[in-house]
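Q: Got a minute? One more chain.
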Amino acid sequence: MFTCKRKSVCWVATLSVVLLAGVGSARADTVSCDFASEAGSSIEFNGTNRTFEFPTTSPYDFVITTAASPTLGGLQGNIGGTFTVGTITTTLLGGMELDQASVASAGGTFSVYDGSNALTANLDWNNIDVFNGLIGGLNVEGAANLSNVTYSGSNSDLLGIRNGTDQTVVLTFQFSPVTERTLAELMTPGQVNSTSYSGSLSSVPEPSSCMLLVTASLGLLTYARRRRRRTAQRIQSNRNPRCGQRTAEREQ
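A: Always. Here it is, folded:
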């Protein structure tokens, strides 16, 4: 069994291990949920303007359907803004077509309501992909695309999203085989197409104060080890002056 002979070194090392484990656990607690469009809500493509929007006849565009925490489940939200599709590139994958394009946002917003207060953020979809005219996605790479996140309520998960980093929304939509549309067809002048959608929202927790403590404790551990080495050198120097002289010369 290992026995630590230096209590200060052991204490700092043990603290570092414990805090690092705590930080790892905190980083694992990513706030995430899935949502789906409400009845009467859709993603609508306007080919003439090469844009898409999220119109609705309901008070809310979407509802959170699945969440690790019950405080998020059932909450509703909205997606606002007009999004413009850029130049389309097409890649053939085994005879199937993948259409891709960048997306420019004009006043894009994303919000979730807790019943009294709203979490709001600026939204940028980054890009759009449509695979073989059947399945499409926005920001499918999962890049952080929410900014200026604000929330003044008390919902713990919404606070976690507000205070976190890498706030991200990913959205998917699909057409039936009867109504399949390539991205080029969706952007054809005179065409207006709409369909339902689903998506996910996630946020990584902000670095906790534990990380600062870990850094400090590792610094203390380094200091303790250096102090132990210097003490050993002084003891050796007292026992053998010539050895101490050589040690000093090496340090210089």
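A: The CA atoms of residues 40 and 57 lie 5 Å apart.
Q: Perfect, thanks.
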